[in-house]
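4.2 Preliminary Data

To establish feasibility before requesting continued support, the project team ran the inverse folding procedure on a target of 221 residues. The structure was first converted into the token representation described in Section 3, and no sequence information of any kind was made available to the design step. The complete token record follows.
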């Protein structure tokens, strides 16, 4: 980590958070280590429902997703789509003309993380949001926040209590954006190790939301 990053963290987020960030980065030089901060949102903020009229928001159906998958810049490889759609996950996004501007994925079933061999489980009263994306040419329009709020509105109408997600503890900018949208913290999961040798710990705040990691059947444990 360079000095500019440290000074920026101190200036924007305070000394204590900057020091913890240094500690997490230092630990990763010895063994991979992450702290996932669980966040939830249960109330729609009307200030995040409207956007520029050039954007059309909708739950994207399979034909549209397959069409957008053909362009690598949309970060929707066919193997990802096959897996997500097979488990019933949904994608709410914004389209601008023929372009995919932004999207986020929503799941009601345990979902594999970027960490091999681990799945995230959560209460069936909630929907799990993951894989948020906004194309470079459409950033700065609050599309991620508006898409998430519209998806939340839809899931509340279906009887769910809200949306859960996670942000790495030291990703302060993303956390700040989440808090602005109305998310709040509920617990943390600490993970250390590699592959089948992961060790993880869920704090008490995660239990209420069934928010936990579990090794997959092929993880070796």
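Position-by-position output of the design step:
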């Amino acid at each position: 980590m360079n000095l500019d990053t440290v000074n920026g963290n101190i200036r924007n987020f305070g000394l204590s958070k900057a020091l913890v960030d240094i500690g997490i980065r230092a630990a990763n030089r010895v063994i991979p280590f992450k702290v996932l901060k669980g966040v939830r949102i249960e109330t729609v903020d009307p200030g995040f429902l409207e956007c520029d009229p050039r954007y059309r928001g909708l739950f994207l159906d399979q034909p549209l997703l397959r069409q957008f998958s053909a362009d690598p810049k949309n970060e929707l490889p066919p193997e990802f789509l096959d897996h997500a759609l097979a488990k019933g996950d949904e994608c709410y996004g914004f389209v601008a003309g023929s372009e995919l501007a932004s999207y986020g994925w929503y799941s009601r079933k345990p979902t594999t993380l970027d960490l091999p061999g681990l799945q995230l489980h959560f209460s069936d009263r909630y929907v799990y949001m993951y894989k948020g994306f906004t194309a470079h040419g459409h950033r700065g329009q609050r599309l991620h926040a508006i898409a998430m709020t519209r998806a939340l509105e839809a899931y509340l109408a279906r009887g769910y209590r809200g949306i859960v997600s996670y942000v790495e503890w030291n990703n302060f900018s993303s956390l700040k954006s989440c808090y602005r949208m109305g998310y709040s913290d509920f617990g943390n999961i600490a993970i250390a190790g590699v592959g089948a040798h992961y060790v993880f710990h869920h704090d008490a705040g995660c239990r209420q939301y069934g928010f936990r990691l579990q090794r997959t059947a092929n993880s070796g444990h």
